[in-house]
Structure formats: C-alpha cells, structure tokens
Design brief:
Layout (H helix, E strand, L loop, with lengths): L4 E2 L2 H23 L4 E7 L3 H17 L2 E7 L5 H13 L5 E4 L9 H7 L11 H8 L10 H12 L8 E5 L6 H10 L3 E5 L6 H5 L4 E4 L17 E4 L3 E4 L7 E4 L4 H5 L4 E2 L6 H20 L4
Parallel strand pairs: 1-11, 2-3, 2-4, 5-6, 5-7, 7-8, 8-11
Antiparallel strand pairs: 9-10
Helix pairs in contact: 1-10, 2-10, 6-7, 6-10
The structure holds NADPH dihydro-nicotinamide-adenine-dinucleotide phosphate.
Pathway: One-carbon metabolism; tetrahydrofolate interconversion
Subunit structure: Homodimer.
Catalytic activity: (6R)-5,10-methenyltetrahydrofolate + H2O = (6R)-10-formyltetrahydrofolate + H(+); (6R)-5,10-methylene-5,6,7,8-tetrahydrofolate + NADP(+) = (6R)-5,10-methenyltetrahydrofolate + NADPH
C-alpha cells in the first residue's frame, strides 16, 4: 500500500514569505519604496473579517504597509467606488483588494471593473482574466489561489507539460483561472462542473487534479488515477463533536482514500490556503517593483 507525499503548503508559503521579506527590505534600502496594499471590507461577515485580518497580519510580517477601509453593510456602491478611486490615485498604494462576496445590493462587476489593472493584485479585473486566456498576452496579475496551486506544483517538481489535468470547478476566481494556467503550462486540461456527466470517469484520467468545488470529500479514491498529484482547494466545515469549535475543515477530496492512491496531495488546512496569502504578498511586491521600474 502506497502512501502519498504530503505537499506542505504551509512551509512553502513560509519560505516564499521569507524571500519576499528579504526583497522588500532590499528595495526599501536601495530606492526607499515600501509596497502598500489597500483592503476594502464591506459589512461584518465572519469569514471575510477573518480573511482580511489574516491578510493584514501577513502584510505586516513581510514589511508591506496595509491600509484598511471597513465600511458598514448598508454602504452604497458609490461609497465603495469612491474609496477605490482614491486608492487608484494614491502612489503609496500598489495593490487594491476588495474582499468578496459583496452584499447583494452592490454590483460586483462595476466594483471589480473600477480597480485599475496596474493595482489589481487579486487578478479579478476582466482585462487581466482576458489576457490570461489569450495566447501571446500577459496578464499583469493572476489571481492568488490558482497561482498558489501552480506554484506548489513547481516547487514540488511536478511536470505539467503534456500531462492530463482535470480542474473540478469553474468559478471566475479559482477553477477557470486554474484551468487557464495549466493550459499555459502545456497541460491538456478538462474542466468538470456541476453539469458534467460522469465526472468520476473524467477525473480518473488526470495526472494532475485541482479540486475547487466546495463539497466536502466529494472526490473519492475511485476517482483517482494511481500516482496522480492532487491539489485540494476546497475549504469545507464538517461537524466534529471532538473539536472545541464543534467543526473541523476538510477539502473537496477524501484525504484518507486519496492518500492510498495519489503520489502527492495537499492537506486541508495547510495546503493551498497559506499559498493564497503568500501569492497576494508576492503580487503586491511585483506591483511596487513594476511601478518603480525596480528589478
Ligand atoms: P464556487 O461556489 O464559486 O464554485 C464552485 C464550482 O464547483 C462551480 O463551478 C460549480 O459548478 C462546481 N461544482 C459544484 N458542485 C459540484 C459537483 N457536485 N460536481 C462538480 N462540480 C461542482 O466556489 P469557489 O471556486 O469560490 O471555491 C471553491 C472551494 O474552494 C470552496 O470550498 C472555497 O471555500 C475554497 N476556496 C479556497 C481558497 C483557498 O485559499 N484555499 C480560496 C478560494 C476558495 P457550476 O459552475 O456548474 O455551478
């Protein structure tokens, strides 16, 4: 019985953050520039508040200045747009992040469109996604979660070129850009979604699986080709009486079964999650470098 190698996202993310810290201090010493990230949070959703707090803490830990605007739930779209416009014009801000989801009375498209693409560190602007989809074009930023997935494959020395990859999920922020990135890396990519017939059979062809569904333990052992590499993006709370909080987090892939069949797999938590934040820091640093023409 084989046992898959565990892809340690937490420690790779730590390594990346250390690299970023060194670069930021070098940039500060040589050209006096400190990268800045602006975060806009609307309302008090518990998960969003936690994500924003973690992003701010991560910024501090590597030497990025963070600027937070926290608006009440009943703010107007105009108010959000006003803050984005202020950050667009502010030279000390190199990245702007609007925490999603926004409340339903706001038009998410208008808001994401208004972030200038040079500061779109989340990579959610349609121009950045469009360029990602086009051959011969380069996006200024790629969204952090899919970028983190590919970075994990690279740092673990996983060959992507010519391999069969299956992405489960097609959201704008994870599944679709993950599929586009794999295709740019010369994988042959299939995308499985909620209307796919026989997703198990398609997934079983994959050398590389990226699961971004939001369904606890959906991908069973029988879905997995022996030796496949699995990147599990899903974060799903399941009841757990033994845990102090009454729940624990699991991925989209049944970890126990997958471990016996795959050659490598990311754990949840401790896999893709920490990489997402590391990529946000990395995008903010690249943005500051680009704006100041600093190599
Ligand atoms: P969405 O809900 O936006 O998208 C889910 C996708 O999964 C959709 O494309 C949907 O298909 C597909 N899907 C749903 N049910 C099934 C099914 N039974 N079979 C096949 N496909 C299905 O989610 P996100 O992309 O935003 O996030 C996905 C997961 O990743 C979540 O658990 C989320 O918490 C986690 N996440 C983790 C991050 C991290 O940093 N680790 C960052 C972002 C998200 P259809 O398009 O047909 O509806």
């Amino acid at each position: 019985e084989t046992s898959a190698k565990i892809i340690d996202g937490k420690s790779i993310a730590k390594q990346i953050r250390d690299e970023i810290t060194v670069e930021i201090s070098r940039m500060k010493d040589t050209v006096g520039v400190v990268p800045g990230l602006a975060v806009i949070l609307v309302g008090d959703r518990k998960d969003s508040t936690t994500y924003v707090r973690n992003k701010k803490k991560a910024c501090e830990s590597v030497g990025i200045n963070s600027y937070e605007v926290h608006l009440p739930e009943d703010s107007t779209e105009q108010e959000v747009l006003k803050h984005i416009s202020g950050f667009n014009d502010d030279p000390s801000v190199h990245g702007i992040l609007v925490q999603l989801p926004l409340s339903s009375h706001m038009n998410e498209q208008n808001i994401l469109n208004s972030v200038c693409i040079e500061k779109d560190v989340d990579g959610f602007h349609p121009l950045n996604i469009g360029r990602l989809a086009m051959r011969g074009r380069e996006p200024l930023f790629v969204s952090c979660t899919p970028k983190g997935c590919i970075e994990l494959l690279h740092r673990y020395g996983v060959d992507i070129k010519g391999r069969r990859a299956v992405v489960i999920g097609r959201s704008n922020i994870v599944g679709t850009p993950a599929a586009l990135l794999l295709q740019r890396e010369d994988a042959t990519v299939s995308v499985v979604h909620s209307r796919t017939n026989n997703p198990e059979e398609i997934t079983r062809q994959a050398d590389i699986i990226i699961a971004a569904v939001g369904q606890a333990n959906m991908v069973k052992g029988s879905w997995i080709k022996p030796g496949a590499v699995i990147i599990d993006v899903g974060i799903n709370p399941v009841e757990d009486a033994k845990s102090a909080k009454g729940y624990r987090l699991v991925g989209d892939v049944c970890f126990e079964e997958a471990c016996k069949i795959a050659s490598a797999i990311t754990p949840v938590p401790g896999g893709v999650g920490p990489m997402t934040i590391a990529m946000l820091l990395s995008n903010t640093l690249s943005s500051a470098k680009r704006m100041h023409n600093y190599k």
